[in-house]
Amino acid sequence: MKQSNTYIFIYASVMVIIVAAILSYTAETLKPIQQKNIKIEKIQNILKSVGIESTTDNAQELFDKYIPKENRIIINYKGDKINGNAFDVNLKDENIKPVEKRHLPLFICKLDNGDKKIIIPVRGKGLWGPIWGYVSFNDDNNTIYGTNFDHESETPGLGAEIKTKWFQKQFENKTIFDDNNKFVSITVYKGGKGSAVAAGDTKHGVDAISGGTITSKGVQAMIHDCLIAYKEYFLKNKNK
């Protein structure tokens, strides 16, 4: 019996080691593929913020065409360019730093008609987890051209609606500075009598998702908290 128990213990230990080795090998083998998929998805989301649709096959080609490496820049809170590639910046890590120590990624896109768009990545908190996205601007560095938002675990049909076109389209042509060049960002108004139209804020306001007010307000905070770090850059380049 003692010999039998020893055999079972040794057999189980060997099997655990073998299975662990197989899983480790599989994870290492799949890691480059996973990293490539994450990179392509990020590229597609950046392009989508300026209305450029792409596939997994042509995303990199389109990215290099419309946003070449020299247009993937990093700035500091003073609006000055610093060394580095914007694509490599981890926004989650940067956002926990004091603003004066952050590396702020910025993408400059040249469309086929010659128009220049500025793309800023944003990241914040929803109801159940992180939310993130990209906000693109016309070359006046004030007027929003397009947005693309995503989430990790918001409720389907409610907070998850930040991914939908109808919600994102509201941000088009809104401005983040008032007529006196004061940074005001974008306000998300609860529906009904609290809507942007009812509040008389059609320049800087959009309507929240019905039933998803907390996530909608999370988008508002995300946009404000991320874009205010770029304020000096926007002011330096506004209407140039």
Provide an overview of this structure:
With 240 residues, the protein is of the alpha+beta class. It has one domain. It is 36% helix and 19% strand. It has helices at 2-48, 59-66, 91-94, 165-169, 213-227, 231-237, and strands at 72-75, 81-82, 104-110, 116-125, 130-137, 144-151, 187-189, 205-207. A 6-stranded antiparallel sheet has the order 2-1-3-4-5-6. The mean pLDDT is 91.
Cα end-to-end separation: 86 Å
Biggest beta sheet summary: 6 strands, antiparallel
Radius of gyration: 23 Å
- Strand numbers in spatial order across the main sheet: 2-1-3-4-5-6
The total count of strands amounts to 8
Percent strand equals 15-25%
Poorly predicted runs are none
Mean pLDDT: 91
Query: In the residues, how many domains can be counted?
Result: 1
Number of helices: 6
Which structural class matches the secondary elements? alpha+beta
The residue fraction in helices comes out at: 25-40%
Order of helices and strands: HHEEHEEEEHEEHH
Shape: globular
In short:
The protein is α+β, with helices and mostly antiparallel strands and 240 residues long. It has one domain (45-237). It has 6 helices and 8 strands.
List key phrases describing it.
6-stranded antiparallel sheet, 240 residues, alpha+beta, 8 strands, two-stranded parallel sheet
SSE blueprint:
Elements: H1 2-48, H2 59-66, E1 72-75, E2 81-82, H3 91-94, E3 104-110, E4 116-125, E5 130-137, E6 144-151, H4 165-169, E7 187-189, E8 205-207, H5 213-227, H6 231-237
Parallel strand pairs: 7-8
Antiparallel strand pairs: 1-2, 1-3, 3-4, 4-5, 5-6
Helix pairs in contact: 1-2
